[in-house]
Amino acid sequence: MTDIFSAIQRSAIRIKDAIDTKDIGYSQQENSSGETQLQLDIKCDMIIEEEFSNVASIHTIASEEKEHAVMLHENGKYFIAYDPLDGSSLIDVNLSVGSIFGIYENAFGAQNMVASCYVVFGPRVEMVFAHNKVKMHLLQGKDFEFVKEIRLNEKGKLNAPGGTQQNWKSYHKEMVDSFFAEGYRLRYSGGMVPDLHQILLKGGGLFSYPATSDKPKGKLRRLFEVFPFAFIFKKAGGEAIDGKEDLMGLAYADIHDTSPCFFGSRYEVQRVKEVYANN
Ligand code: FBP
């Protein structure tokens, strides 16, 4: 596992340099979700594939920016699904973005996840790696230094509601408003990584990206985005559901499958369960 941890660190340092370039324009290519790729999306994807191709314990990789998975080392045992630059559409407005990694053993699938990691590219570069515990590291020069273990409280103060509100179900809107009525503060940047990082570091709250009339299966991808954060929130003492079911109990058919998702501390996720159980 340490060889994968090191490869992610090397990738993060190179991605940080790539982000600091002038060319943040769009390419002529589309990813398998039909989104026009930024030059930067393609560059970050190449950086990660290069670094992982030197790690013999990695059997197969799958990228949000590629249609199909790629086998790297036949004798490897780890399968890694990653989003090279999540929220990349925020780069041109200079908001924080991130990279997300799900590390699976012997095959892709929530039940095979053994570790997960994300890197936040914000005013500072921070990496959170979850294996047995959830640990945060800060980039200092060319090295990531351990900072602290992350634990969620029972209840938080932050509310990050994703999705286009006019396409929300009425009971979802009532639920989101019920937290604001209780004094929760709105914290939503449109970048999944910084939004969830804030809830983790501030001790709790709720991030939600529900099923909506325009995205009935949600927007966020199971293997690349949803399962990695579900693993982290649960290891940190929180919960992660699709409205009803534990996200880590979900299967996937296509590597680009999406799911509605709710990540948070126990108090908030319990309310989601109650509201969604009745609808
Ligand atoms: P990408 O992986 O294509 O960047 O999309 C993911 C994302 O940008 C998340 O980071 C974010 O939480 C969500 O989409 C924002 O979606 P919306 O703009 O619909 O609220």
Secondary-structure blueprint of this entry?
Blueprint: H1 2-19, E1 26-30, E2 36-38, H2 39-53, E3 58-63, E4 70-71, E5 78-86, E6 97-105, E7 113-121, E8 125-130, E9 134-140, E10 143-149, E11 158-161, H3 170-181, E12 185-186, H4 192-201, E13 205-209, H5 222-235, E14 239-241, E15 261-264, H6 266-277
Parallel strand pairs: 3-5, 11-12, 11-13
Antiparallel strand pairs: 1-2, 3-4, 5-6, 6-7, 7-8, 8-9, 9-10, 13-15, 14-15
Helix pairs in contact: 1-2, 3-6
Bound molecules: 1,6-di-O-phosphono-beta-D-fructofuranose.
- Going across the biggest sheet, name each strand in turn: 4-3-5-6-7-8-9-10
Percent strand: 25-35%
Low-confidence stretches: none
What is the N-to-C succession of helices and strands? HEEHEEEEEEEEEHEHEHEEH
Q: What is the approximate shape?
A: globular
SSE-based structural type: alpha+beta
Oligomer kind:
single chain
User: What is the end-to-end distance?
Assistant: 42 Å
